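Same chain as my last thread, 238 residues:
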Amino acid sequence: MNAMTATGGEPAVRVAGLVVRCCGQVLVGPVDFEVASGSVAGLRGRSGSGKSTVLRALVGLLPPPLSASGDVRVLGTDVARPGVDLPVLRARAVLVGQTPVVFPASILANAAFGLRHAVRLPRAELRRRAESALQEAGLWPEVADRLQAPAEELSVGQRQRLCLARALALDPAVLLLDEPTSALDAASTERVESAVAGLAGRRTVVIVSHDHAQLARLCGDVVSLDAAVPRPAGVPSC
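reply #2:
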């Protein structure tokens, strides 16, 4: 398995011998890699190789009956340690899913949604951080004059960047992006990629993508999961 090794200090993500099982059957693994703080790194592999599963394992979000073994450390936190505060970790290492989900509320309220539920802040500070996140996600020029408009009015590409802004409002150290442009047209893909590229050096980003050219454009290092045990067809019943 390829490795993305930190150039100095503790890596933001360290995975050693990660194996994901369902009812005792290996679905993916073993997987080994490291991601340096502030770098943009990619996970690639054929369909069913476990890319999204690995992302979810990094923040303890595997659905039952899946289980993980091995050493997984994110921002120095042992994800598998009994008693670990996973909600706190998930506010510092935020997973953005493949499908852009917006809530039946305004654009501004959507950008502040996760932040509002994570910390207690004055309304003015919530707004400031939400607006800053919209700028960082590259959506601000398109929505600055209609922040109170329903988020459902946005295009799919804009919704994807709104989900990115929602994550960025939490000021995470790590962003985990699962196929962030798989459903987007070329123009929207370019805008999302531009927003992600702008995060380099300031946040650690791990991207799952089937698009090898995209990973080459955005990532300093890429890990291939094709050498790991492939996920069998179908999930065994438990």
